[in-house]
UniProtKB/TrEMBL annotation:
Segments forming a coiled coil: none
Keywords: ATP-binding, Kinase, Nucleotide-binding, Serine/threonine-protein kinase, Transferase
SUPFAM superfamilies: ATPase domain of HSP90 chaperone/DNA topoisomerase II/histidine kinase
InterPro entries xrefs: Anti-sigma-factor_SerPK (IPR050267), HATPase_C_sf (IPR036890), HATPase_dom (IPR003594)
The organism of origin for this protein: Actinoplanes sandaracinus
Keyword Transferase set for record: yes
Protein name listed in UniProt: ATP-binding protein
Molecular-function GO terms, alphabetical: ATP binding
Keyword Kinase appears in the UniProt entry: yes
Residue span(s) of domain Histidine kinase/HSP90-like ATPase: 11-98
One Pfam family named in its UniProt record: HATPase_c_2
Amino acid sequence: MPLEHGTPASSTRRIAERALRRWGLTAHEDDVLLVTTELVQNVTKHTDDGGEFRMSVTDDAILIEVTDTNPAPPRVREIRQHRAGGRGMLLISSVARRWGSRPAVWAGRTGKIVWAELVRRWPR
């Protein structure tokens, strides 16, 4: 799904919800929506030309990826009590099995893919 600068994360959240229902993985909804929101907001707020959202599932994981044109890798910031925001990657690291980034070209510019992998627990 393409992401445009300033687009709210809510439309991407709805797409993620539909995919989870289609895959029968609604038990993962809270974590997936948290990661989706944080990654999408990073793209739509901090880049000038948007990016792209992808979500896939394997036997043991749900993979959420966003692509953008900012080559700077994401980082977990030091928490400052009086600073709003800046906790997105900390939140992601608390629910994801692992996360990271890799260089990529998007819209003809050098950027990155930021990804988070969530453990897929089988429904009972």
